[in-house]
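Re: the pair you flagged

First of the two:
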Amino acid sequence: MTGFGDLWKLDATDQAALVRRGEVSAAELVDAAIARIERLNPALNAVVHPMFDRARQAAAGDLPDGPFRGVPFLLKDLAAEFADEPMTEGSRFLAGYVSGGDSELVARYRAAGLVTLGKTNTSEFGLLPTAEPELFGPARNPWDTGRMTGGSSGGSAAAVAAGLVPVVHANDGGGSIRIPASCCGLFGLKPTRGRNSLAPHYGDIGNGIVHEHVVSRSVRDSAAILDATAGATPGDPYAPAPPARPFAKEVGADPGVLRIAVMTGSMNGCDVHPDCVAAVENAARLCESLGHRVDYAEPDVDWEAIAGLFSDLWTGMFGWTIADWSRRLGRKPAPDCFEPWTWRMYEISQQVGAADYLRAVQDAQGVARIVGRFFEDRDILLTPTVAAPPLPVGSFVWTEETRRPARRAVAQFSSHTPLFNLTGQPAMTVPLAWNDAGLPVGVQFAGRYGGEATLFRLAGQLEAAQPWQDRWPAIAV
């Protein structure tokens, strides 16, 4: 058995197995995770709201007999409502807000036996592909603390990469699971639209572009947690067909011969860093060596138009976000409650009418049809996850002097992920590469709508062929 001091190296599946066998108690797991958070978090700023007393009380009590009973866990401080705990979404505007009850997803995490130790850092309202809110300061990448974590689930990714806990909640409205997982050397899957419910507060967010799940080190943790949380609640607007069998059973199953299309260029005309191109090309060769059929192809879509309609959707959605919180909080938005970038986006959102937003929805649905037809002849599309290795902290800071280059930097860095938020397809980033500077460079695999099973089979095969779980940043060890 792994020594008590090495529990942090185990994934959630192995930690849960120790608890079931009585070799370690839930309280011991929780205390060990809290000790690591207290030791490492000052350098990482991943956890912004500790819940240690509640976690210790839960671990000492009668936990649900779920598949992850006693395993320490964290929630991203965005959309995940935990009863009687604050939620800020990285913004001063939510000062003083305390959740009145659990969101459906949190209730399912609890039923699975996960013990929540706190909440993790995110950009304000998840707007940026980093986690550097003015409210809490930047989360830092465990592989190089001068680099960003990616975002917006950056605190979640930093926590897993440093071994604070084995798996952490994350959500994704344009890449916010996949981008930080790539930057921190983790596995991150964005499920099919509607696979996890947004109840009770929301049916969908932004016409279904926001999806919930986790970031993890192991593929099997991601699959088994999705088994524990997936499924619609009454009244949900989307309900993808349930899987033929548990996702956990797909990990290690033979994926067969997959038809994999490869795209190394940008989806918006920006340059792609050579390290990211090389990571995709090496992943393609690995897939070929595993018996898959690989060709270079991409959907026949207008990438510039997609960038524009995604921007319209996001802007309209953000206007709704502030209107919704204003109604819930009983306070009016004002510039001093927001970061400059956020406030500027809110001002722009006030110029987006209902017709503009619904036209963007229509155009997004048209893109989904084109991309859907592309996947009739292929099982997988392989692309970079991001267009550059992790950038220095502060690369996206907004001032009057930097606002134009900052917007360009954001658009370039995160160009590959939003397409699959528009289409609702599942997509995953897999940590198959590290560059010469020792920074992780993930690659993205997208599958058909409802096709998580295929992705989990492929991910399990890649994990076995080119393992990454023994790679740890120096700060972790």
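Second of the two:
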Amino acid sequence: MDEDGDAGREHRTGAEYARERDREDPLAPFRERFDVSDERYMDGNSLGPISDAAEDALERAVEGWRELGIRGWTEGEEPWFWYGERLGDELAPLVGADGSEVVVGNSTTVNIHTLIGTFLDRAERSSAEESSGANPRDRRGSDEPRGVLVNELDFPTDHYAIRSQLGQRRLDPDEHLHVVESRDGRTIDTEDVVAAMDEREVGIVFMPSVLYRSGQLFDLARITEEAHERGILAGFDLAHSIGVVPHELSEIGVDFAVWCGYKYLNAGPGAVAGLYVNERHFGETPALAGWWGHDKETQFELNLEFTPADDAGAWQIGTVPVFSAAPLFGSVEIVREAGIDAVREKSLDLTAYLIRLTDEVLADRGVSVGSPREPDRRGGHVALEHPEARRISEALRDRGVVVDFRPPNVIRVAPSPLYVGYEDVYRVVAAIREIIDEGVYERYETAGDVT
């Protein structure tokens, strides 16, 4: 890889070009807000690093506990009792929703359980009423129970939870979990998702916004529209897009969504998750009821009959874990200051730059790009494929380049826009080149995993 910046169609490949882009980058100052030490941290799609704002928010919660004790639930700057709803208000603009439609609580998997369960129950309960403008049973004139449409490249926990919820309703998961297959082992074709809605008895389509391995960005608007035309509910797992890709869930009519808080939202390991429920579904009884989802006005009357909140807050279950939620106040503040559209713009440019460098520098060394090249089909990370991906990932980590490996042959590189620059990307590609050219990866065992 040369140092003199030879020209390309969109990006130049030299180091000086990378430095020039960093000097011009309006988001560059945000890097100082994050503690990434001297590492080239390219794993923010698994766990984002700590920021000053997130740490300050956590410290405020700790001080509230110290100074207020139990009074912290109802007193102080951010009373803990309302954490879920207040954080829902903060996150709502990132997903294009009203604050009442978003709440923070539970874990991503728990939220999949409760929302899939809720809407499976609804489908069974309302066979004679309209769902999203149409009656699913009238669509095909069948009394066959309607299942859930997923895809074979999903993150496994989605399938675990859905199969469990089907089984709880005595529906055989092997018959009622409908799986769209991939044509290339990397991506899912939207047309195949649409076709499956017609070919199978589907009540809910549940897809990721971004595939965790290849980084493919799904067409949420098209999938939602096609689902609703067939009387099918549309839900999405936004774990690999929230905080790096803007969404307009309410505008396009998505029925429900879930996400985590520890990837691009940078709220820390085990950060509390979030969920969205379109307001037209307010009043549904959550499949997993718990006292924290009770109507807040009467929650402490401690009635034995559950009265759900009249908004998305109903899908909270247990007491909010304060110290797992507090950092979100700070991390969302940073995203808001940067602007989600500016974050997305830089993300697309960084990933395009990484793809260009891979083509120019790494392709003849056996590295290929396993992510979509079209900007509107790509999330925030790039999948680099190589037969020795596992060992190359380990060698990169030992050189201070933090990436992760996904079987069978993917190095995931996530140039998160708030703390990664163009020279970082340049140096990562240079490190991969050296590791391959010098045979460094051969020093590592073939067994083991890099998470």
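DSSP finds 14 helices and 13 strands in the chain.

-B.
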